[in-house]
Amino acid sequence: MNDSYWCPSDGGPPVVTDDVVATAFRRISLPPSTFSIQPPGGQTLVNFKTNFFTEERTLNRTVTLLGQRVDLRIWAHSYTWHFGDGESITTSKPGAPYPKLLITHNYLKKGDYRPAMDTTWVADYRVGGGAWQSVPGSVTIEGAPANLEAIEARPTLVGYGG
Asked: Hey, what domains does the chain have and what are their CATH numbers?
């Protein structure tokens, strides 16, 4: 970002606008979300509800724009779950661990898959401790894919004899 200077004789500091904050928001380094898969261990079963979830996070950042302190309150607005088989969904919730099963996917064929999750962040801002305002727009951060193998389980009849 370029440093900006202002002269007090010009009538005060320049105004920090929504557009200035939105540009700064897009330049902030935001972390990709990590996600968990259940069952754990990199394997799931074909035609089995595979559970996906992540941790819900809120981030706080402070930047200086046009010589003024700007606080940002940043949170995940939505999650796009790519299951690695051509299917994906977008949710406003981060899912949950077993037994809630909020974000699930059934793999229909055995094979190796690379599920991933993108996080779309939105923010509010305030200048110099003033009132909070919405930052226009959002920022989507792509998540790294995980390795997942879908395998078939074969039922076996077991006799209990005597």
From this structure: 32-151 (2.60.40.10)
